Amino acid sequence: MELQSETFNPADFAWRGISLTPAAAAHVCDLAVKQGVQGIRLGIKTSGCAGFAYVLDTVTEPKADDLLFEVDGAKLWVPLQAMPFIDGTEVDYVREGLNQIFKFHNPKAQHECGCGESFGVQAE
After folding, report:
1. What is the structure's pLDDT at 47?
2. Which of 11, 68, 75, 94 is most buried, with most CB under 10 Å away?
3. Phi, psi values for residue 94, rounded to 5°
4. Mean pLDDT on 68-85
5. Is 6 inside any structural domain?
6. Biological process (GO) annotations (predicted)?
7. pTM for the complete prediction?
8. 33 in a domain, yes or no?
């Protein structure tokens, strides 16, 4: 009997998507206008004590494997390879004291580090 190895292809899945709150959408639109970009890209990188960290970059030209999520004119791209880790995430923009920051409400995050900079996920 021959064993076959299956590969994981994110393109084979139906995604719930990424959502933006009205505050996050307004801030992304402001950034796009002020910086002369199309929007932002939300990705992840291996980092921190919990496993992964969110990465935000401005987008002047989307990449071929980016998925576009648009809310109220705000454009958010996500690399296809990041979707298994952040699918269903709501992006918010909040004021915390004197700081204004993006917050991520990720239903796949099983735990976060104490400083809140990284998160971990459970394999499904």
Report:
1. 76
2. 75
3. -130, 160
4. 94
5. no
6. iron-sulfur cluster assembly
7. 0.79
8. yes
pLDDT at position 1, please?
45
Asked whether the beta carbons of 94 and 23 are under 8 A apart, the reply is yes
User: Which one, of 73, 71, 72, 37, lies nearest residue 56 by Cα?
Assistant: 37
Q: Is residue 61 part of a domain?
A: yes
Residue 60 is assigned to a structural domain of this protein: yes
Q: Rounded CA gap, 48 and 29, in Å? A: 30
Which of 116, 111, 118 is closest to 54 using CA atoms? 118
* Residues near 6 by beta carbon (within 8 Å), at least 6 away in sequence: none
Cα torsion through 22, 89, 32, 36, rounded to 10: 180
| CA 114 vs CA 49, 55, 99, 107: distances in Å | 9, 18, 19, 18
